[in-house]
Amino acid sequence: MSTEAVTEPGAPRLASETWVDIQPRRAILAMPEYHPPLAGRNGLRLDFNENTHAPSPRVREALGRITLEGFTIYPERGPVEAVVAQHLGLKPEQVLLTNAVDEAIHIVCFTFLEEGDECLFAVPSFFMYDVNAMGMGAKLVRVQADDTLAFPYERMLAAITPKTKLIILTTPNNPTGAITTREQIHNIAKAAPHAVILVDEAYFHFQGDTVMGDLVEGADAPQNILVARTFSKAYGLANLRVGLLAGPVSLLNHLRKASSPYNVNGVALAAVEACIGDTEYIDWYVQQMHEGRARIEKALDNMKVPRWPSHANFVLMHIGPRHKQFVNEMRTRNILVRDRSADPGLDGCVRLTVGLPDQVSMGIQALRDALAGINWQPAEVIKPETEPKETPEYE
How far apart are CA 138 and CA 279, in angstroms? Predict the structure, then answer.
């Protein structure tokens, strides 16, 4: 294929060497690149914290009602936002549907961060916080959790400065499973009235505590708290990419202005409207996760594999220096798990997603066999490092 410029007939042609090397903004050059480890995911999916079963049966029924003509129509987000808002006990203008939580994070950063502003969050956490904040030229202030991996509340408070513009709190946190309490969230919001507080509740269903109810408009409603939720985990719609932002109307007006009007497709909107009210399904699925998580934690304790307490649909364990060998050994047994060693403070750590009962049984058996296959011993485990060795993987 020619590298010369395409020109109109008769116009002078430019040699390829005359092209200038066009560079993006400095913030984009400095921004870390992520590489989703999606290739070759053939096996039992205990690696991405996805729903390993299926969404509500109502989703299939709703998708069956979509006509071919429906694919020719631009999607209308507003009516489904009203349905979701009613489910959450909020006004429609307090809810914005997004293309998963990934876009929610991007819209918040795009809307509120200027170059030089400080974005504060605890680590280890979701890598897309780094990507989106750095992309806006913000200064990242990462507060490292200690060996317990509990939320570093006091150090987060101490890190707030007049330049802090965005504070991201994740509860339960991925990949640790730790929580931030409602009291801590409100105290941080009060300590930084000049900053937006984004509470990422992607794993809310598996723990149950939330500040969503505090957003109901009234005299005591916080004016700087936003809540992000996803339909990718408990609802099982990861492939359709749907999330939401909720908060005070004053902030949502800005976010809506920054959002694309057609960011959520019509198939996804139909699925959300169908599943949001199926509390019977969600209650059943969450119960499966609670029981499965307890089984995995008990099995790890019996195998003397160090782990951290989890409030999500996964368990983080400490394998030690041979973590990559362990992950590969699990893959040979058709079980996919996630190596989290690249995350700050998690050297040697591996994350295991909770599945349905039969999947949990398969996972536990594979754990036993894989550890035996590499002749793993508890004495191998050393204290995790506090700095990442490489760019963290996404999700």
Answer: 40
Taking the CA atoms of 181, 302, 323 and 38 in sequence, report the sign of the dihedral they define. Answer: negative
Looking at residue 302, its pLDDT comes to 97
Q: Is the pLDDT of residue 82 over 80?
A: yes
DSSP secondary structure letter of residue 92 = G
Domain ranges in the chain? Answer: 30-52+280-380, 57-278
User: What class has domain 57-278?
Assistant: alpha beta
- The C-alpha atoms of residue 109 and residue 195 are separated, in whole angstroms, by 12
- Number of helices and strands (H, E) in the chain? 12, 12
Report residue 358 as tokens: 């039969």
Spatial distance between the Cα atoms of 209 and 224, rounded to a whole number of angstroms: 19
Omega before 24 cis (within 30°)? no
CATH 3.30.1330.60 fits domain 30-52+280-380:
no
Rounded Cα distance between 143 and 154, Å, is 10
According to the model, what pLDDT value does residue 20 have? Answer: 86
